[in-house]
Amino acid sequence: MIPRFYDVTTGSIKIDGVDIREMRQDQLHDKIGYIPQKGVLFSGTIASNLRYGKVEATQEELNDAAAIAQATDFIAEKEGGYDFEIAQGATNVSGGQKQRLSIARALVKKPEIYIFDDSFSALDFKTDSALRKQIHEKLSDATVLIVGQRVSTILNADQIVVLENGSIVGIGNHRELLENCPVYYEIAASQLTKEELA
Fold it and tell me: How does DSSP classify residue 123?
């Protein structure tokens, strides 16, 4: 609903006090870096994909975004590095690589709001953890929304909203929800160790 793929049926979504329905679509989209669950790449080079939201981005900006997205190593291994040509349908990169390049592309844009729509799902736990640590450190001046199935992905969020069948059943941080939200506790207990639940 934030990028207005769907409009709210009741209430409103506001950015800096302005109802998003009163903004021009291009204005709204300039404020948002949206990373869907399935990373989407375009035909062209890795560099042209990363510059999609900011055509004038410098090589240093590409490097910084790739580092945060945990993409530096595999880009270096590709023939030509940033000049590596992405095949149609991105068939010459893995799901995890596609995901990290999609994340890096949003990071190059430097929007006010990042929406990670279950976009860590194709990543292994080690990469997921490293990426979240970088996001926490480097994007402290942005609003970061993470939609996630894994509790570990959202564990350290300032605020977690728990949904069940499209309804909000809990709002709070990890500790608060463990104590006050049975649905969250059940999900967390199925995924985390006893130490993490303590």
Answer: S
